[in-house]
Amino acid sequence: MENETVILTGRSLTLEEVEKVSRKGAKVEVSSEAIQTLKDARQLVYDLANSDVPIYGFNTGVGWNKDKRVMKEFFQQYNTNLIHSHCVAVTPEASIEEVRAVLLVRLNTLLLGCTGIQPEIALMYMEMLNRGVTPVLPERGSVGEADIACLSHIGLAMIGEGDAYFQGVKMSAKEALSKAGLDPVVLGPKDGLAIVSSNALSAGEGVLVVRDIEKLLDIADMVYSLSLEGLNGNTSPLDPKTHEIRPFPGQAFSAERISKYIEGSYIYEPNWKKPVQDPLSFRSAAHIHGAVRDALEYLKKYLTIQINSSDDNPCLILDERRIVSCSNFEVTNWVLGFEMIGIALSHVSKASCYRTIKLSNNEFTKLSRFLAPANNVIAYGTIQKAFTSLDAEIRHLSNPATTDFFSLAGEIEDHANNSPYVVQKTRKIVDNLLYILGIEALHSVQAIDLRTDITLGKGTKKAYKIIREKIPFYSEDRNLTIDIQKIYEILKDDKFIGEIMKAVELF
Amino acid sequence: MENETVILTGRSLTLEEVEKVSRKGAKVEVSSEAIQTLKDARQLVYDLANSDVPIYGFNTGVGWNKDKRVMKEFFQQYNTNLIHSHCVAVTPEASIEEVRAVLLVRLNTLLLGCTGIQPEIALMYMEMLNRGVTPVLPERGSVGEADIACLSHIGLAMIGEGDAYFQGVKMSAKEALSKAGLDPVVLGPKDGLAIVSSNALSAGEGVLVVRDIEKLLDIADMVYSLSLEGLNGNTSPLDPKTHEIRPFPGQAFSAERISKYIEGSYIYEPNWKKPVQDPLSFRSAAHIHGAVRDALEYLKKYLTIQINSSDDNPCLILDERRIVSCSNFEVTNWVLGFEMIGIALSHVSKASCYRTIKLSNNEFTKLSRFLAPANNVIAYGTIQKAFTSLDAEIRHLSNPATTDFFSLAGEIEDHANNSPYVVQKTRKIVDNLLYILGIEALHSVQAIDLRTDITLGKGTKKAYKIIREKIPFYSEDRNLTIDIQKIYEILKDDKFIGEIMKAVELF
Amino acid sequence: MENETVILTGRSLTLEEVEKVSRKGAKVEVSSEAIQTLKDARQLVYDLANSDVPIYGFNTGVGWNKDKRVMKEFFQQYNTNLIHSHCVAVTPEASIEEVRAVLLVRLNTLLLGCTGIQPEIALMYMEMLNRGVTPVLPERGSVGEADIACLSHIGLAMIGEGDAYFQGVKMSAKEALSKAGLDPVVLGPKDGLAIVSSNALSAGEGVLVVRDIEKLLDIADMVYSLSLEGLNGNTSPLDPKTHEIRPFPGQAFSAERISKYIEGSYIYEPNWKKPVQDPLSFRSAAHIHGAVRDALEYLKKYLTIQINSSDDNPCLILDERRIVSCSNFEVTNWVLGFEMIGIALSHVSKASCYRTIKLSNNEFTKLSRFLAPANNVIAYGTIQKAFTSLDAEIRHLSNPATTDFFSLAGEIEDHANNSPYVVQKTRKIVDNLLYILGIEALHSVQAIDLRTDITLGKGTKKAYKIIREKIPFYSEDRNLTIDIQKIYEILKDDKFIGEIMKAVELF
Amino acid sequence: MENETVILTGRSLTLEEVEKVSRKGAKVEVSSEAIQTLKDARQLVYDLANSDVPIYGFNTGVGWNKDKRVMKEFFQQYNTNLIHSHCVAVTPEASIEEVRAVLLVRLNTLLLGCTGIQPEIALMYMEMLNRGVTPVLPERGSVGEADIACLSHIGLAMIGEGDAYFQGVKMSAKEALSKAGLDPVVLGPKDGLAIVSSNALSAGEGVLVVRDIEKLLDIADMVYSLSLEGLNGNTSPLDPKTHEIRPFPGQAFSAERISKYIEGSYIYEPNWKKPVQDPLSFRSAAHIHGAVRDALEYLKKYLTIQINSSDDNPCLILDERRIVSCSNFEVTNWVLGFEMIGIALSHVSKASCYRTIKLSNNEFTKLSRFLAPANNVIAYGTIQKAFTSLDAEIRHLSNPATTDFFSLAGEIEDHANNSPYVVQKTRKIVDNLLYILGIEALHSVQAIDLRTDITLGKGTKKAYKIIREKIPFYSEDRNLTIDIQKIYEILKDDKFIGEIMKAVELF
Fold first, then answer.
1. Which residue in B82, B381, B479 is closest to C378 by CB distance?
2. A392/B417 Cα distance (integer angstroms)
3. Among residues A117, B119, C10, C167, which is most buried (max CB within 10 A)?
4. Cβ–Cβ gap A403/B407 under 8 Å
5. Do D399 and B399 touch (CB under 8 A)?
6. In-domain check, residue D316
7. Is the same domain home to D236 and D169?
């Protein structure tokens, strides 16, 4: 994908493209129309300033200091001061992938021409992305309402201060720029504000989390499919007719996916010994995953608007040649989506845990207790503590954090939403859930092995194979901490779901 | 509205109609097509049972007892036992309005013909609604996944046991039916299950809460408008162009509404003494209210599906003449919406509190401290504790509750979502928020009064008048507990926002 | 107990005495020493004021208005204004019992002589208590740091405004005073502040909640004892030696109690069919209840200090004849105790729920599923939803609320603790838990009945008898909503645990 | 301290000693009496087993497998299997210091002779500590009720499997043992259980967190003292008399400490321009810190019992020569303490944030806005977002997590408390709070600098000096991310508070 190029217009960036650029090394290019917009906007800001109107952050201070005037001869100094004094972030660093997503999102929204930033600085984002210069960006310190405390570090690197990665190696920003053949930028009026005043940190990290949730849901559907085969469970809750009657879109989607995965499986064979109804964690899996898919749609919809619209204040209205003070940095609507999705994922986690518990219970599987391969093997007993303890963390993290803020800056900034933290706690939920689903998968393939001679579905067969290539049958007691880490890494790798999709011809 | 009639088809019920029937006394009528569907379904269930297939809840027990067979001669007895043993609810009672909503929702979803209930019993819901018989229904005791522990009380009243209201008076159900000219029903096979196995409690109560949130948002926009005039604030964040650039639908909607309310107001007059930017609680009001509107759309969409689709298990597939075991009682997707909206409303609450604090701060208003009308009057000082303490409750209630459940019924029922409690805590949030917005309104009209000789907007003028008719200017210290209760009741009354809408020609 | 009299000194009030006065009608008397202290303090405040020192709330305004001076001739007016403007409370009303606790606590702390209140007003609290005048006091509106928004209503009644109960009947305060043979008070300097500036609302309500928790723990130990007999469980975790080895005081206490209750029970008989170890909900009951007892000790210790020390600001130092500005209205330490106890009770709830689930599981009891008395009876199946849904509420309520506050009064009051709400949510937890333990008790007596011919313990025998007198054996399916309410009321009645204590000679 | 030796008896270990050994390299020695106890216990277990009594985990399986018998010839194999199958932990690793604390705590409680472990294995803990062998121990995976999923990794290292650190370098456990001159142990009966079945992970990590909180409170008192000087605030709330009148022990302690720190300060000078009362975040600091001190006492008391008593099941009663099944692995009482302290620290955090906000507000300080040293410097504006965002995390982390558990192991393990996670989230709270207090300190020293020519107190002078040695006066805008990290490290270093204590002669 390194040869792919994403063309940016300010209005057409997809979540998938953000991932391509940030994680897969795709290049970016700014459309010529967008470059013209940048130039027009820069000109407008000068024209307005010449008419001596106070323009927030251009010829005035920012925040509580909006009552202070900034004189022309101090533009560079003031903007450098602004970058410096806004560097108030706290460890840990965002990952290189995340910072790239941040750079991309900010670049795209700059192209709408609402800031009046120097075009050269806008293009610096592009160069950094394409040449592999990634500023070091501590990810804590912002309460949302623009992530100014953190994004400042991008400005810092652009002027050749602070640290940055070049091709994955950490060094001084100055050196990184130089190795990349770039000169530090010279800040002019409004540039400081344009760099820092954006929600690109939470939006950029958020996009990657959303992408990961999408994959997680595919994985969850897959792991559930394996478990259904491990249990020898009922397929009637997947009946398409029942989803027609109950038209929640997500549940029909998941049910269809799962049906694809288990196509051809032995579980479709009539078997009078099966109980009529399995535990709800099995029976309702498509419904629960579907509910999360519905919730995710909400989030995707608004996050896509976010990365293709201006969150700038003040905001240039190019076609009307004016500048307006506004509140477009408000991101509460999609922060709410992240809060909802965290709670939603807690349901996925609970259901996975309960399925795993059932898989180790001989009453339900009619296999051995704890899926032990022999009488003197202890097997999957204590592991129940591992995945349920991770679920307890998820439950804890799913508590909301968005409304816990202070009134700041002389009581002027009396609303916030903690967007970065909300995104980051969701990221942690997703990571924990990968472990939980991984442990479920360990159980389901073990249960499958204990049922000798069964035919798996088209997708589950593939999944089984990928897992068993790296993690052998549990034939005697061994250090499971290692298996847990392995299965986590298998699921985390895009290849896992990718190969399955190929197997079921969904790609 | 008592003369209005809502025709039910099972597929076309709106949230507004639920309110009309439950709160305004509209009558209901079942479409003839739906009656035929009920009959066909009843016949199908008999046909299937005759073919000796075990049908869950028809000729088998329910829940963990699904392995037990029920013989024909015990159908009435078993179904009565089922109703009795499912009466396991806990105080307090749902309100009459709420129980009516529950009856209506259950009636409508029965019409889809997925249960095979006796048509006579389905029509009993209609009769109860139309003749004013309302079973006493304690509202706690259900964990979602069908509100069987509570809905049983409707069955109880139908067989003439327990208590009910007739025309608003509590009496024995037997007497209520008799006064209404109705005979108790005789339960046959599957009737017990059809009565109890539905999410109609949480859906019914939920619809009313959603209706209340819709009104609350209109009120919030209105109260903010008054406050903007009380503060003499800036209107630039309402600029339609800024919402075009940032196309989150809710914020544009709220901004437009607010602009209507303040049309013609003095605050549009140029005033160089105004600060460029007001505190965010003012500046971002449309954005915050809009974010909640966006979240509410999510909830409305799925709740509308809920009340127009079958949540029954097992589910009759009439056109294919079969019955399927399924999990359509899962309501996680809209329960997530309620969790999200609770958090969203916490933002509305915070912003209202901060605006009120600003209105009592002379630094921001340039009026007197605490809006005191004279030097020896204490005025709105301590009241800050009142509304912020209500906000603390909202913050507390906005924590999620949906994933805290047990594995029940021999570990078979290992998923739940606590839908009734989630709805009920949201109801409480809405009620608290009405008080908070009410107290904001007390402040804003006081601030308006302290600014002599100003012209209010088209809508705000009306709102001001309605409030001041019942609550006079605060000219000397008086018992504010009374004013708080009064303003709460003014806002709660549909007439408040109704008359304003008329004034701004939105109705 | 109505003939009993509690002598108040300001330093010796116990939690038990608060309950006696508030709930059992005991009279109060102020020690003569304390009356002298009141007089000395009043004199001191006059002496200091004459020396023209500004004394907060005496000759100055309060809160943000502390910079305003109050002149002698306006003392009555100002103090009346203060009462009026501090009446900013919100429904619902505190119960009569609770308001009596509030009156008592405030009276006792006034006796320390730190306020300089008119002695006549202090004695008015005593008269109100002794003559049965109870002001109507809406219980919401305070954020802690003194419950000024609510306690003002006591002042209101004292000056003959607002409403009050006389001997349990609601009427105007004026009428209530008159019927009680009391004259309204005339407010002088500092009286308003002394009346409102206290944490007596949260402390008073808190004491009653703490008393209820103490009883609840006794009930929990008792219900567990019944369940142990219902299960035919193991007594080894009660072995005193194991508690010597693990010297957490609470668990030893509970273990001893339980051992007393089951003295002589059949479960001590050797029985080789018992499993070695019961589920943890049984095995760890004494440990869990004990942990809550330990936590409760924390709370009792500091709450006792609270009701016997001054929380006044400013604070008169009588022996040094000076007045100091201080922060003694801070009650964070015992509010923390309430937060902890809520979480602790969530453990009690969980354990009770799990025991009840086990009692209805034939695998564990070797009795019938759901404790059904016969094959065609459904019995305790759906009831699982009832108690677990109440547990979900407890889990939700156990989230903390103490740190969610605003910065008020011109940013001066930038700390709070929400003490009333924290107490009130704990009260709700206790109430829910009574239902949960009640439902467990329904199960345990049913299980006991299904084991024919067993000998119960000394205490459990009594408990069984009290319950079975009002709630018969569940021999056929019946409306359990009624049984749930009955058992709740049985447990709530002090007689239940009282008679058991007599039976085991603990009283 | 590396030359110091702590003598272990099983009954006398202090929290401070745990820190000495784990962090400062003190050596440990087991008392000869304790060694004899170990031997006696081992003998007893053999004697009992010979009498053919089933002994849980000795000649039976553990958990749900307690119904399985283990034969003598399989003792080593079974115990190795047990260690293997209990290795089910999840990243990240506990720190070396923490693992050392875990080793020490487990060693000490083994000395009580309740397990019957091989004395050689008990002494292996000592050798590992003294020779610097530290097993790699992933810290997640346990739900409390003994941290078996994690502690297994200690057993793994002891038998020469898995990884370990030797003198700080990671290598295979085998190599580490060999470098340390130790042979792997050979597991015999009951050894596996004795190694894994303990709460030593949560207790060990917990002790270090408690020690850090103790220091944090000293730091908080110190930073507050600096801020009081920065503000030129009032000292009257520190008046000892007011704390006599209000005898909560913690507040008096903090008030005294603070008074020591500011002894001799200019703020004691009479100054009529000071407002009578400072904001509560200043006025109530000693009370809030004191409340946390009181809460901490609770935790210290019970944690000290924990590390000096047996949490083993089954439990040998040496003097009565029997073995009892019990539930002494229950740690709910001190887990509750951690939940409480988390909420308590949230109060400390809120108060620090509010003080910092005040320090940057010229209205309160009468200094420049944001403590800017000159008009063209932006200074401490945006930094408000940094510390308040960290507070939002603390608020989030302070939600309880202890009651979110599943029923495991065939429904036998139906209680848990999530002790490790509760401890770990508290650790995170403490870490965040160090940053917050650090940022407050940056403000207070800047405010102090802006007040030229003032005399600081005995302790604050020292603190000021230590800080200013590393972080110069903020004279022009600079990258504050660096300053934030620096001040965090200064405060974290024991030397900071140590040198201050010396300066005020408290050590």
1. B82
2. 16
3. A117
4. no
5. yes
6. no
7. no
